[in-house]
């Protein structure tokens, strides 16, 4: 077996508390499908037959009842962990170390993408890399986000990513938060790769191919708790550490860890043959200096950067809204679910989706919106640019624009809501107008 | 060696006897051979040409197999068969005009010898039937078919041309279950050029096969000797799709298949696997590592102090020889000749300069300017063909030609495992076409040839190999010794008799 897929679905969605305080993030509906369906569908399309899903008990319960999850034909091995949020992604990997028998592909549950996965995996295979990851150009979200007062919040802390000339080898990775004293690059990196491109407009897609040796290394090093925050920068730094290249093995504690990573990345018995093949091959990954391919380093990290195509991480409200608009375009499914009852005098735009068992009455206008399952929309309702989740009732004469209405809410008659976020199970009084509270949060 | 010469003499005597018997039979294929050359098709040209040559060669094993019947009886039997065939063909001749001459040279050789000389599939890409057959075979083995890319120059339209940007893994599922992951990795490395060079490719292939053998378990009711060979067949097709196999790889595969099928059926699985693994180790050690040492030893005799040696491209063997000679304190300097688009000479330059050898670097366009300084030319080979031609990186024959014009000795270094039974006199029939986009160059942000496919009268050709005639090669240094180019068929014959 070549790769095992692991889906991390235990995250809390800490950056969009309004949406997730009732529904856990992996089950948030995007285009009327639960969020975690998208990465699972990506894995299924590519050819995986089994996935290890790390999630909480709550999500596991919801998964078994959701009809869309039954469409997933792969074998899902669900591992439940505690919800207290102390467990990072690396801790979760350590937890399932016994199940990992080969190299592992870690995917986050909030990734929606149509990338050709073989590009990332080919980098991992061809260069015998320790880590291969996926990044995309960061998107500017232009839609007004409900619940945000006034101007947009300051940009999230940027990531500084350094790649070599070919744009594939990862040389440097740091978050703005860690660079308070300025960005410093080690001389050893500059000597080996004199030309480095540093990019700041990239977003990590949280899709990683890791060698089995890394999972074993994690089991020994309990101090690393997050893949993205700690493991990846550690591996990127260790590519150029002096001990990686020197043949001597020191007794230092840190170098002991180093040794484990080095020792287990080799194939053991056939290492001299591989060395011989590399020596006899007339290929080098860089030119201009006297070193052999890869500068003799055994630890290599690669990144595949996509500029075109869909790649979203749904971890903020703005991303959620954007994803809802674009996700349906990934698949050619009918916009209107066959079981929905739509009256003939309803004006429905082409970019709207209507979920199962919906009832849409006369004289309604639905444009650029997503309407979830089992929702009732009464007469003379105007819904524009909104996301309406499951089980919502919208009474007559409402005007809903740019809103996100969570499940089981009831919008009273004649309510006029602009750019609002209505929480789960809330009731909006009739004739309520959001004009009095512009861009507000109703909970 | 003496033994070889004795064996040669015996064989020649044997052949003379056979020739006298078979004179009448040989008339037919030779006579028919004169007709097809008038036809314009390439296929006709090739079929009769190799047919008469291997006929005497393969007679010896055929005859040796039948010691029971006397030679006179066999002769009579064959004559009778031929007469009946001739009679039936005379009847058909009135109806069928053209196909008869082409079928004639093919039919009698198939009668006389068990092996039918057919054109290999990889040089018949413009024949839709062959393509269909290939597609069917790959479908059966569950391997995706790689589609050709771009416009092919008409003279080479019978060869495959793939694009580096469309790897075969696009069509494979990601956790590859049909093909062993080591083979997928190898295929990727071949198609991206990470493992390039005849020796490197063979070593990497054997390394991957070792992993396959290690992970192999015999299914119930199957024998390891037969099942493992069947398991390896789709892998070999896959690797062939990624990049056409080299002659050295072909020989290595033949060796492994032979070793696998020679495993006795009562052998336990663990024992058999460890035996195979040690066979592979042994092969690599003997044919590649020790052979390199032997060749280096012979070559150092030919390198004298004050020499100016010219090398072309990056041949692992030639680099090894030069480094060894430098270790043995010979005083020489090297001129590295390089050519686009691969520019492999840069890597050779790096390896030599790293050791401390003083080098000069030129492009192939300057070869005639630099040759007056050169005292010897050392060339590496991809394969040595049965008629003494040397198949090597494109540009080698040019260097050999210019060196001949300047009376500079040309020495080709090649291990015996790269000797191939193919016969070729030109670089057109069997070659490899690399990605044509590799020829495109971007300078200062401008790519002039970016839309070359839209220009109807423009074709880009990126050849990989060419053949050098034996007249330009003065000496071939192999692990068996220093032989002239025309002795290659002798070595091949001796190898066959050994096996």
UniProtKB/TrEMBL annotation, chain A:
Region (Disordered): 243-270
Domain Nucleotidyl transferase: 5-137
Recorded GO MF terms: guanyl-nucleotide exchange factor activity; translation initiation factor activity
Gene3D superfamilies with a match to the protein in the record: Hexapeptide repeat proteins, Spore Coat Polysaccharide Biosynthesis Protein SpsA, Chain A
A single GO cellular-component term on record: eukaryotic translation initiation factor 2B complex
Segments forming domain EIF2B subunit epsilon/gamma LbH: 339-431
Subcellular locations according to the entry: Cytoplasm, Cytosol
Compositional bias segments (type: Polar residues): 258-267
Keywords carried by this UniProt record: Cytoplasm, Initiation factor, Protein biosynthesis
Region forming the signal peptide: none
Domain of life where this protein originates: Eukaryota
GO terms, biological process: cytoplasmic translational initiation
A Pfam family hit: LbH_EIF2B
Binding partners and assembly: Component of the translation initiation factor 2B (eIF2B) complex which is a heterodecamer of two sets of five different subunits: alpha, beta, gamma, delta and epsilon. Subunits alpha, beta and delta comprise a regulatory subcomplex and subunits epsilon and gamma comprise a catalytic subcomplex. Within the complex, the hexameric regulatory complex resides at the center, with the two heterodimeric catalytic subcomplexes bound on opposite sides.
Function: Acts as a component of the translation initiation factor 2B (eIF2B) complex, which catalyzes the exchange of GDP for GTP on the eukaryotic initiation factor 2 (eIF2) complex gamma subunit. Its guanine nucleotide exchange factor activity is repressed when bound to eIF2 complex phosphorylated on the alpha subunit, thereby limiting the amount of methionyl-initiator methionine tRNA available to the ribosome and consequently global translation is repressed.
Entry's family note: Belongs to the eIF-2B gamma/epsilon subunits family.
Name of the protein this chain belongs to: Translation initiation factor eIF2B subunit gamma
TrEMBL record, chain B:
GO terms (BP aspect): animal organ development; central nervous system development
InterPro entries (UniProt xref): IF-2B-related, IF_2B-like_C, NagB/RpiA_transferase-like
Biased composition (Basic and acidic residues): 20-29, 66-95
Signal peptide: none
Compartment(s): Cytoplasm, Cytosol
Residue ranges, annotated region (Disordered): 1-112
Basic residues composition bias: residue spans: 7-19
Molecular function (Gene Ontology), one example: translation initiation factor activity
Keyword Nucleotidyltransferase in annotation: no
Assembly notes: Component of the translation initiation factor 2B (eIF2B) complex which is a heterodecamer of two sets of five different subunits: alpha, beta, gamma, delta and epsilon. Subunits alpha, beta and delta comprise a regulatory subcomplex and subunits epsilon and gamma comprise a catalytic subcomplex. Within the complex, the hexameric regulatory complex resides at the center, with the two heterodimeric catalytic subcomplexes bound on opposite sides.
PANTHER family attached to this UniProt entry: TRANSLATION INITIATION FACTOR EIF-2B (PTHR10233), TRANSLATION INITIATION FACTOR EIF-2B SUBUNIT DELTA (PTHR10233:SF14)
Name recorded for this polypeptide: Translation initiation factor eIF2B subunit delta
Name of the coding gene: eif2b4
């Amino acid at each position: 077996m070549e790769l095992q897929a692991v889906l991390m679905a235990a995250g809390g969605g800490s950056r969009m508390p309004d949406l997730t305080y009732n529904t856990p993030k992996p089950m948030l509906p995007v285009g009327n499908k639960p969020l975690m369906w998208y990465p699972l569908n990506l894995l299924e399309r590519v050819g995986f037959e089994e996935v290890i899903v790390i999630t909480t008990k709550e999500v596991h319960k919801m998964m078994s009842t959701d009809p869309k999850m039954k469409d997933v034909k792969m074998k899902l091995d669900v591992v439940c962990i505690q919800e207290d949020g102390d467990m990072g992604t690396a801790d979760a990997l350590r937890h399932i170390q016994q199940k990992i028998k080969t190299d592992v592909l870690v995917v986050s549950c909030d990734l929606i993408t149509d990338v050709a996965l073989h590009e990332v995996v080919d980098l991992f295979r061809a260069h015998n890399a320790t880590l291969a990851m996926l990044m995309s150009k960061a998107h500017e979200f232009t839609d007004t986000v409900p619940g945000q007062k006034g101007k947009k919040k300051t940009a999230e802390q940027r990531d500084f990513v350094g790649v070599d000339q070919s744009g594939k080898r990862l040389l440097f990775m740091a978050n703005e938060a860690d660079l308070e004293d300025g960005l410093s690059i080690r001389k050893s990196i500059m000597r080996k790769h004199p030309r480095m491109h540093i990019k700041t407009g990239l977003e990590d897609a949280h899709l990683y191919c890791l060698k089995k040796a890394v999972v074993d290394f994690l089991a020994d090093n309990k101090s690393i708790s997050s893949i993205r925050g700690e493991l990846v920068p550690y591996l990127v730094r260790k590519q150029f550490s002096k001990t990686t290249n020197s043949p001597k093995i020191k007794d230092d504690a840190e170098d002991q860890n180093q040794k484990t990573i080095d020792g287990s990345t080799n194939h053991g018995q056939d290492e001299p043959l591989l060395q011989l093949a590399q020596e006899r091959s007339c290929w080098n990954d860089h030119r201009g200096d006297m070193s052999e391919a890869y500068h003799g380093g055994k630890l290599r990290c690669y990144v595949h950067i996509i500029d075109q195509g869909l790649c979203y991480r749904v971890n903020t409200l703005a991303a959620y809204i954007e994803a809802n608009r674009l996700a349906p375009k990934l698949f050619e499914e009918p916009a209107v679910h066959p079981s929905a009852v739509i009256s003939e005098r309803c004006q429905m735009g082409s970019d709207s989706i209507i979920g199962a068992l919906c009832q849409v009455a006369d004289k309604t206008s639905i444009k650029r919106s997503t309407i979830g399952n089992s929702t009732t929309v009464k007469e003379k309702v105007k819904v524009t640019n909104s996301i309406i989740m499951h089980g919502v009732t919208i009474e007559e004469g409402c005007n809903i624009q740019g809103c996100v209405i969570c499940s089981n809410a009831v919008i009273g008659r004649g309510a006029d809501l602009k750019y609002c976020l209505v929480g789960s199970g809330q009731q909006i009084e009739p004739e309520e107008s959001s004009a009095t509270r512009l861009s507000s949060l109703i909970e | 060696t003496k033994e070889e010469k004795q064996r040669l003499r015996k064989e020649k005597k044997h052949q003379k006897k056979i020739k006298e018997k078979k004179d009448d039979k040989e008339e037919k294929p030779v006579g028919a051979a004169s007709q097809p050359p008038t036809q314009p098709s390439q296929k006709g040209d090739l079929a009769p040409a190799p047919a008469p040559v291997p006929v005497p060669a393969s007679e010896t094993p055929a005859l040796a197999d039948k010691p029971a019947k006397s030679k006179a009886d066999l002769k009579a039997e064959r004559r009778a068969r031929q007469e009946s065939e001739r009679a039936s063909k005379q009847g058909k001749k009135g109806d069928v005009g053209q196909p008869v001459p082409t079928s004639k040279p093919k039919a009698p050789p198939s009668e006389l010898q068990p092996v039918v000389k057919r054109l290999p599939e990889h040089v018949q890409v413009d024949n839709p039937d062959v393509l269909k057959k290939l597609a069917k075979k790959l479908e059966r083995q569950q391997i995706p078919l790689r589609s050709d890319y771009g416009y092919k120059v008409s003279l080479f339209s019978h060869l495959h041309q793939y694009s580096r940007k469309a790897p075969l893994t696009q069509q494979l599922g990601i956790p590859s279950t049909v093909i062993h992951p080591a083979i997928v990795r190898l295929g990727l490395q071949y198609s991206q050029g990470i493992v390039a060079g005849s020796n490197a490719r063979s070593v990497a292939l054997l390394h991957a096969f070792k992993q396959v053998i290690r992970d192999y378990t015999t299914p119930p009711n199957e024998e390891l000797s037969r099942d493992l060979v069947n398991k390896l067949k789709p892998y070999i097709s896959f690797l062939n799709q990624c990049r056409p196999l080299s002659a050295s790889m072909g020989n290595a595969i033949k060796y492994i298949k032979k070793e696998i099928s020679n495993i006795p059926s009562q052998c336990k699985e663990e024992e058999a696997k460890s035996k195979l693994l040690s066979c592979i180790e042994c092969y690599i050690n003997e044919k590649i590592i020790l052979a390199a040492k032997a060749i280096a030893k012979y070559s150092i005799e030919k390198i004298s102090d004050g020499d100016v040696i010219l090398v072309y491209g990056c041949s692992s063997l030639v680099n090894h020889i030069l480094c060894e000679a430098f270790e043995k304190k010979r005083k020489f300097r090297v001129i590295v000749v390089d050519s686009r688009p691969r520019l492999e000479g840069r890597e050779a330059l790096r390896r030599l300069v790293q050791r401390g050898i003083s080098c000069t670097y030129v492009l192939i366009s300057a070869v005639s300017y630099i040759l007056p300084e050169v005292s010897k030319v050392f060339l590496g080979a991809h394969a040595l063909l049965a008629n003494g031609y040397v198949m090597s990186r494109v540009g080698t024959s040019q260097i050999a030609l210019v060196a001949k014009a300047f009376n500079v000795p040309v020495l080709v270094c090649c291990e015996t495992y790269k000797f191939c039974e193919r016969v070729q006199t030109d670089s057109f029939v069997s070659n490899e076409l690399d990605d044509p986009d590799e020829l495109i160059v971007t300078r200062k942000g401008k790519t002039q040839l970016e839309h070359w496919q839209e220009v109807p009268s423009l074709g880009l050709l990126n050849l990989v190999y060419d053949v050098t005639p034996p007249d330009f090669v003065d000496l071939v240094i192999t692990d068996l010794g220093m032989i002239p180019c025309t002795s290659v068929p002798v070595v091949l014959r001796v190898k066959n008799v050994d096996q």
